[in-house]
Amino acid sequence: MPRRNIVVPSLAAAEAQIVIMQGFLKVLESALRFGNPILIQDVERLDPILNAVLNKEIRRTGGRVLIRLGNQDIDFSPAFTMFLSTRDPSVEFSPDICSRITFVNFTMTRSSLQSQSLDQVLKVGRPDTDKKRSDLTRVQGECRLRLCFLERSLLQALNESSGNILDDDKVIDTLETLKREAAEITKKVEETDVIMQEVDQVTAQYLPLAQACSSTFFILEHLSTINHFYQFSLRFFLDIFDHVLHHNPHLKGVMDYQKRLDILINDLFLIIFKRTSRALLHRNHVLLTVVLAQIKTRGVDGGTITDDLEFLLESGDVSTVATAAASGDGPGVSFLSGNQQQRLSQYSTQSLFRVVSADIEGRKAGWRMFVESEELEHVAPWPWEDLSGMHILALGSIPPLTSSC
After folding, report:
1. How far apart, in whole angstroms, are the C-alpha atoms of residue 95 and residue 90?
2. How high is the pLDDT of residue 305?
3. What is the Cα–Cα distance from 373 to 380, expressed in whole angstroms?
4. Which CATH number, 3.40.50.300, 3.40.50.2300, 2.60.40.10, 2.60.40.1510, labels domain 11-98?
5. Of 243, 238, 261, 276, nearest to 117 (Cα)?
6. Which residue ranges make up each domain of the chain?
7. Helices (H) then strands (E): counts for the chain
8. pTM for this predicted structure
């Protein structure tokens, strides 16, 4: 029966609280007397009446086991069990309570969410691999149980033997059975290991998607540190994940496994942004975009993309960089000030901007116009050969480079 602490704003509410308390005491008394388990929910604050139960303050009187509950003594059953639960993951209990109860934490972790996501993806994307993995897990479990049974049988036979062990036919028969079945189990385990390697190879292909699911959920969960109203539950995320897996129109007619995986990853980030951004202030949309981009590009090209993105987020901080222009190592562009050339020297250390210095040397007129123009979007140069989202972000960060401030 749920037990909640409530504020009593009126006499009617006070009477309702008394009724709840009386009903709770009756249920607790019945559970203590007859040994029934009881579940008490929302225990952010424990009622003092439970202290005697938690402390197991029992006493024996005339062959009876009694416990004090409120103002009366009632019989206590040794089979009584009490479970306390809370839905608030941030609640903290005092040390005296922690010493009297056993904690079981069902909070979602990164590894557990990653495992669940991987299971769901394999069931949808590769049901054959998922079935193989389930069967192999079952077979390996059965083999371990069989070995444990044979070991116990051997120990029991040795314990029951008398005299010379070599003359005991029961022990000899048990040893022969153990040897024969152990060889069969070893052979079966070796066969499952080969199949398990194949399963692991397929599973590794879907691991980035599972890791992305785990990372994005905890990013959504930590958005509340920016604004208290940014509260996104696990159910919210699982609904998005279910939509991407089972109701994705982009998967229709696509049979290639790698293409399906790419669609799942792209749509996961896209739908997360679309649904989450509806609840965010407009100024936080860019923040969500960059964080999701960091997760999506993690591990791509050996981390180069992530490093470039981190550099863009730092806005090219030059506080720790020596003035290359002052030392004569800068590009020596006449229309750039010393501070601008210092920024350009630092930017050039990043792979994303290495072509910028050479392009400035080759197209000074175009870059001079870019530096001096008030409408940068109309005269922006393009030093890269291809077009990508990262290059667009990089071009957007170049105006501070050319700023004289």
Report:
1. 16
2. 59
3. 9
4. 3.40.50.300
5. 238
6. 11-98, 126-202, 218-305, 306-405
7. 15, 5
8. 0.57
